[in-house]
User: Which sequence fits this backbone?
């Protein structure tokens, strides 16, 4: 049996691997694709063991070894019935012959990272997971955790593990023990700029320069600005705008709703132009990326 597990949601993917391994007989063998050749993998898969009649082999990131990846279709076709082969890939090239072949040869499962559109689903998952672990988590507390951690499933699971040890789960305790993620930091960054808090903005930029990638921060800022523009131009409640654009959750739009009410269309149009120009500078010049982001934010300051 061959499984092809794809996606960057390592938490869900690793749980799937664990479930497959538990159904199989014997201890799993983990193979580092960078340290194995096509020939040695064939030998390994065909080898017999004295301790079990079946075997489970976990092969991680074979696409990073081009020769191995190119040979994997042929190798997979020769896997015996008593061998369970689990192939794990974060982002395989879907254009390759091997990828297309594995789609036919293996049971394929996709584990994409959640996005902001999955906030509602993430909240439901967190509440369900808390209940399964007998953790008394309220909806408002789950939303606060997601506000701080984001929708990274592994991060949410780690946060849940941390709060399960608390004598009492309160908003104050959550804020004291759960660190914020770049998404939340960037939301505050944009809000600070749009509130005209120049000194606070300078401090936040200085901190983020040391810890975050400028391109990632700019991408998050641009995404939030686009949602802000939707709210301003639509002149509708966040929940309605979310339905109009097919968002699974109005969470981020609701967070931006207060800011949207303070801004006019003319100001938003100016902001969109500022960020469009910054995007062009990031893509076409050798300027320091953080200097470009900083310039865009200072241009966004509301007097």
Assistant:
């Amino acid at each position: 049996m061959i499984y092809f597990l794809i996606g960057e949601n390592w938490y869900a993917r690793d749980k799937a691997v664990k479930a497959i391994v538990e159904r199989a007989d014997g201890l799993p063998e983990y193979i580092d694709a960078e340290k194995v050749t096509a020939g040695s993998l064939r030998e390994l898969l065909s080898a017999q063991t004295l301790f079990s009649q079946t075997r489970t082999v976990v092969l991680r990131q074979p696409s990073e070894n081009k020769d191995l990846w190119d040979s994997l279709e042929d190798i997979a076709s020769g896997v015996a019935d008593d061998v369970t082969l689990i192939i794990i890939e974060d982002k395989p090239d879907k254009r390759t012959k091997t990828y297309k072949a594995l789609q036919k040869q293996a049971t394929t499962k996709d584990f994409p990272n959640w996005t902001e559109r999955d906030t509602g689903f993430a909240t439901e998952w967190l509440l369900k997971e808390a209940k399964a672990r007998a953790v008394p988590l309220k909806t408002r507390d789950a939303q606060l955790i997601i506000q701080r951690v984001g929708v990274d499933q592994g991060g949410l699971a780690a946060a849940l593990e941390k709060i399960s040890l608390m004598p009492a789960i309160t908003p104050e305790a959550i804020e004291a023990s759960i660190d914020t993620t770049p998404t939340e930091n960037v939301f505050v960054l944009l809000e600070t700029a749009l509130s005209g808090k120049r000194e606070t903005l300078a401090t936040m930029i200085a901190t983020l320069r040391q810890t975050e990638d400028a391109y990632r921060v700019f991408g998050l800022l641009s995404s939030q600005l686009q949602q802000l523009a939707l709210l301003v131009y639509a002149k509708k409640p966040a929940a309605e705008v979310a339905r109009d654009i097919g968002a699974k959750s109005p969470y981020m739009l609701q967070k931006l709703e207060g800011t949207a009410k303070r801004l006019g269309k003319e100001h938003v149009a100016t902001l969109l132009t500022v960020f469009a120009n910054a995007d062009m500078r990031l893509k076409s010049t050798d300027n320091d990326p953080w200097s470009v982001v900083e310039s865009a934010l200072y241009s966004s300051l509301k007097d």
Q: What stands out?
A: Strands lie at 2-6, 29-32, 55-60, 83-89, 107-110. The mean pLDDT is 88. Residues 32 and 70 are 16 Å apart (CA to CA).
